[in-house]
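idk why but the lab printer keeps eating my pages so im just putting this in chat instead. protein + NAI:
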Amino acid sequence: MADLGFDGKVAIITGAGGGLGRSHALDLAKRGALIVVNDLGGSSDGTGHSETAAQKVVDEIKAAGGEAVANYDSVATPEGGANIVKTAVDSFGRIDIIINNAGILRDTSFKNMTPDQVNPVLDVHLRGAFYVTQPAWQIMRDQGYGRIVNTSSGAGIFGNFGQANYGAAKMGLVGLTRVLAIEGAKHNIKVNCIAPVAKTRMTEELFGDAMDKLSPELVTPTVTFLAHEDCPVSGEVYSVGGGRVARIFVGVTPGHYQEDLTPEAVRDNFDKIRDESGYEVPGNLNEEMMLAFKAMG
Ligand code: NAI
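predcted complex ->
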């Protein structure tokens, strides 16, 4: 089969001045996409600002024969999001792909977490995805085409100590992905999500040498495929790292049904309620409700 090409497609990649975003930007550019390299250029905790990071990646793309423009807005405000989308439209005339990737960390145990650690993390990861995606949504609807890849994390999907702020934001992105997939379906807008693991400045202090085999370039192929016209799925989540790609999903056990349910019946049937054999994976809320109605007979 032919290589996955992106000739003339316009992609916004947020937080693309380094780490995973830079790797996604370089690959899409190499494959013919026109790129908006967005990056605020701050430190890992979101403080500071510099135009160097985004501009360097734009220079790299151009040196390799690709096309890109830099944008230095923060994803964490509605004005920033609107301006990132405007940069794409002003520079390239359309917008086909959004990769919501920008991120910061402010880890601490829940006991010690202050609003200054909660709000900026929710603003960048979760609200940032709203602020960038929403101004582009109408454009994608009008053109009947769009591909969106959100960046979640196992820290939220599975849980991780010291990341209540980050985990909540990242699991929020799974919910956003699932709803946008449903709302975008009839406009050929596909929305998927990755939970990556890679050695970047965000993780290298945490895991050190253990991360050496986990290059960002091994996460990008999945993002590139999900951002492509041929992407066959929407509303899905993939665990990606070190060359491994696997699907993550939310399943429902067959459970227990009893018309006269009591707390004692819940207790006495708890193993059955929790038993994972025969689980189902509902595609949306209606399908989940149908399972309940089916059990009721
Ligand atoms: P990174 O720190 O190298 O990249 C994040 C980029 O986002 C930085 O260049 C930063 O300047 C930019 N950024 C931060 N706030 C911004 C804002 N308000 N507006 C625009 N840009 C902003 O870290 P990495 O690892 O490449 O992270 C990329 C994404 O992947 C993040 O969303 C992160 O949470 C997620 N992730 C990474 C994992 C890993 O193992 N590296 C694991 C799970 C998720």
